[in-house]
Design goal:
Elements (H helix, E strand, L loop, with lengths): L7 H6 L15 H10 L3 H5 L3 H16 L4 H26 L7
Helix pairs in contact: 2-5, 4-5
Length: 102
Amino acid sequence: MRRVCLNAEELMESNDDVVTVNEEFKPRAWRAGLYSAVFPGLGQMYNGDFGRGSFYFVLAFILIVTSHLILPLFILIAFWIYNIYQAYSYARSFRKGINKDD
């Protein structure tokens, strides 16, 4: 039977094996969708897809800066909606165990 040590010195001096817990992160779909609704790319970053998230973040920034023109405004709206859908669906499929890369 192993005893529990509450003294830090005693713990450091012991030769017992250290057990690490590595739980796999499973993003929640509603959080990914919410983060993407706040700003495009945040949901993808929450899902762990930093490349796509960074790209979406920069693209959204460019579209916002140029939104005084009519066409970029429509592109921004369509892109924002797609961004929310993509982050939500990726997190949902990831939680179900489907490794899906759009």
